[in-house]
């Protein structure tokens, strides 16, 4: 047994169980280069860490017993509780249904929105992955403070269209959308959340710069944070309209992903099991419909686990490559998991 080297935590009695978890905490803290301002912050982080580790261990026990198909792990979020993490996790604002997404004023007339319905395409194969077909740009990192997932997801789909159709790899500017596509104008709230439909409408009217010329700042939202620095002579990206995909049909969604390309979607991304997802196929019966986060469906696949056939979606997240499967996650298909079929959207560039 190692001696307790946890000087900052002053605990009157140290139990063996605590000792192990303290060592786990120190190890984790070093691995993720976490520093805390003072003793209180360290103790709070440690308390949260213990709480989160219990959830992860319980989930992984299910995984070992074969009752779950995804593995969880400690990660960079493990010193925070759910409500503190919400900036990174949350980000789809005022998503209801259909036309209300189009509400809000804009600089010009709305660009063309087309609803894709079943019957549009032939049937899709069992397996498809746009990463293997030159259709996906690198995973980005929205950071901890800005609920800008709607911008990352929406631009991810636009980047995919440029890459798969023209072989061009662009990283478009999330910050431009956050600063310039604001609530007074479009119904979007910058780092307090937004939606892809009004983002596409904004891009269709104004164009979008590269992240290289208009970099991401990961700011805390505050009233005067958003000063728009868009320079139209630097705009590189454009779009001519966008598609909304008829909700609730995952067979059809496969066809859209295969024949059209990656699809931006909103889902419930607020569960701890999702925050600590490390690998496998995410399938949590507690993950009910409730749109809070956004990501990008880039493909789908099928596995046989102990005789059980499981179809899944391959999704690109915006929490950097140190989260999940190199920044990606798989989500079970056929259950409308976490409400994933409710808000589906893809840009049109020609
Ligand atoms: C922690 O810092 C070291 C040294 O600066 C670096 O090599 C490593 O990648 C960092 N780890 C994380 C998770 O940021
Ligand atoms: C779902 O989509 C599939 C494939 O396009 C189609 O055959 C089927 O009729 C659709 N189901 C409903 C209920 O619309
Ligand atoms: C896009 O951004 C990623 C990192 O976020 C970087 O690795 C890549 O080189 C960038 N691509 C271009 C074309 O700028
Ligand atoms: C806009 O971008 C162009 C091209 O990079 C540059 O020449 C011009 O100075 C910029 N305008 C402003 C106001 O920054």
From TrEMBL:
Signal peptide: 1-16
GO molecular function terms attached to this record: cysteine-type peptidase activity
Protein origin, superkingdom: Eukaryota
SUPFAM superfamilies: Cysteine proteinases (SSF54001)
Domain Cathepsin propeptide inhibitor: start-end pairs: 25-85
Any one GO BP annotation for this protein: proteolysis
Limits of the Peptidase C1A papain C-terminal domain: 124-348
Keywords of the record: Signal
Family per record: Belongs to the peptidase C1 family.
Name used for this protein in its record: CLUMA_CG021355, isoform A
Species for this entry: Clunio marinus
Encoding gene (name): similar to Cathepsin L
């Amino acid at each position: 047994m190692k001696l307790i080297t946890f000087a900052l935590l002053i605990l009157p009695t140290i139990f063996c169980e605590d000792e192990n978890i303290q060592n786990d905490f120190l190890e984790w803290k070093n691995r993720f280069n976490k520093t805390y301002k003072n003793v209180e912050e360290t103790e709070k982080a440690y308390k949260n860490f213990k709480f989160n580790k219990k959830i992860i261990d319980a989930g992984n026990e299910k995984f070992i017993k074969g009752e779950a198909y995804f593995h969880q792990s400690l990660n960079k979020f493990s010193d925070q509780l759910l409500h503190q993490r919400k900036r990174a996790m949350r980000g789809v604002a005022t998503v209801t249904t259909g036309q209300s997404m189009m509400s809000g004023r804009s600089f010009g007339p709305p660009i063309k929105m087309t609803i894709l319905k079943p019957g549009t395409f032939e049937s899709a194969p069992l397996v498809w992955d746009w990463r293997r077909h030159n259709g996906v740009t690198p995973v980005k990192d929205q950071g901890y403070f800005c609920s800008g997932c709607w911008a990352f997801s929406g631009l991810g789909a636009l980047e995919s269209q440029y890459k798969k159709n023209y072989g061009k790899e662009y990283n478009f500017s999330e910050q431009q959308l956050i600063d310039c596509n604001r609530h007074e104008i479009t119904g979007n709230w910058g780092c307090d959340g937004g939606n892809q439909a009004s983002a596409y409408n904004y891009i269709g009217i104004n164009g979008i710069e590269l992240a290289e010329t208009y970099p991401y700042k990961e700011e805390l939202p505050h009233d005067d944070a958003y000063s728009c620095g868009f320079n139209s002579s630097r705009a590189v990206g454009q779009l001519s309209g966008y598609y909304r995909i008829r909700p609730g049909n995952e067979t059809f969604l496969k066809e859209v992903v295969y024949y059209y390309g990656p699809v931006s979607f909103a889902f419930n991304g607020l569960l701890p099991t999702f925050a600590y997802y490390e690998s496998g196929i995410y399938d949590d019966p507690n993950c009910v419909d409730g749109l809070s986060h956004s990501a990008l469906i880039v493909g789908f696949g099928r596995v046989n686990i102990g005789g059980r056939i499981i179809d899944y979606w391959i999704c690109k997240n915006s929490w950097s490559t140190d989260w999940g499967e190199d920044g990606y996650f798989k989500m079970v298909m056929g259950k409308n998991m976490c409400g994933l079929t409710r808000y589906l959207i893809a840009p049109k560039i020609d």
